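User: Here's a chain of 211 residues. Predict its fold as tokens.
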Amino acid sequence: MGLKGFVEGGIASIIAGASTHPLDLIKVRMQLQGESGHVPNPALQAYRPALATLNGYISLMEASHIAQPQPSRVGLISIGARIVQAEGAAALFSGVSATILRQTLYSTTRMGLYDFLKQKWSDSDTAKLPIMRKIAAGLIAGSIGAAVGNPADVAMVRMQADGRLPIEQRRNYKSVVDAISQMSKQEGIASLWRGSALTGHDRNRIAASIL
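Assistant: Prediction complete.
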């Protein structure tokens, strides 16, 4: 690949990640909709006095049929507009420093390791890499790259989701370094690789097919 191609590939990955970051943030917010947990049905609260009386009461079956208010379904544009209204336009780029770090670590590690394996495993006569070795090199490079970039990936999701928490519960990460530092101190170093197995499984398939 050469140093030039290596640097150009890394820069392209960073620009692509930063450019699509708002869409990634909105996706995370959409995935977290309805996460607030079980909230008692307000309609049932009105029947509590009746349940306490001698003659007037309703059965649990009757209570279960009382309609609960359904959360409104919102799409990509609605979520984006809400974020801008509630947190400002800059909130769409919350965690972008983590995206940049993730792309730097993942993409450069993946491409650099793949190039190294390609040179080592290429046929000495034809200077070509057989298809099975090419797939294996992609899987290995993608897995290791995902493991290296996972702390930044976790930090990015935390930073993107922080804005939807109640103000008193927000962690208010200043940067990806601050997010990683807080997670390490409060939850241990292992928390930085939470979900790394699934991330690696996804990334190595992509790397194997692309590289």
